[in-house]
Amino acid sequence: MHGRMILSFCQAGIVHNVVGPFKVKLKDIMSAPIITIDADKSVDEAMAILNKYKINRLPVVHDSSIIGIVTTGIIMSNVSIEKHAETEF
Predict the structure, then answer these.
(1) Looking at the domain assignment, is residue 18 inside a domain?
(2) What is the pLDDT of residues 25-62, one digit of tens each?
(3) Model-level pTM?
(4) Which of 12, 15, 32, 89 is the most exposed, having the fewest neighbouring CB atoms within 10 Å of its CB?
(5) d(CA 64, CA 3)
(6) Is the dihedral of CA 71, 72, 78, 81 positive or negative?
(7) Distance of alpha carbon 51 from its chain centroid, rounded?
(8) What is the edge-to-edge ordering of all strands in the sheet holding 65-71?
(9) Of the spans 12-26, 31-45, 72-86, which averages the highest pLDDT?
């Protein structure tokens, strides 16, 4: 776990746990601990973490700061584009 993010919450957590507007605190439905990946790690390493923890979003950190989020969809889209480009040559 890296960075300064102190909480994370997921769409499913909100849908399943919120009874009414503003009645539930984010700290009660957030995901913890926060799982992150360093920006210099590979796509394969990111996919391994996403699969291991069964998560769809992974905060990317550099120098202990969150600089972005990678998702399974983003990775799959880029892998698909890369594979397509390889088959064109």
Answers:
(1) yes
(2) 888 888 888 899 999 999 999 999 999 999 999 999 99
(3) 0.64
(4) 89
(5) 4
(6) negative
(7) 11
(8) 37-38, 57-62, 65-71
(9) 31-45
Reduced to 3 states (helix: H, G, I; strand: E, B; else coil), residue 70 is strand
Is residue 30 exposed (0-12), middle (13-18) or buried (19+ Cβ within 10 Å)?
A: middle
Q: Which amino acid is at 32?
A: A
Q: 3-class DSSP state for residue 33? A: coil
Q: What is the CATH number of the domain that holds 56?
A: 3.10.580.10
Is residue 53 situated within a structural domain? Answer: yes
Nearest to 55 by CA among 84, 29, 31: 31
Inter-residue contact 9 to 31 (CB < 8 Å): yes
Domain total in the chain: 1
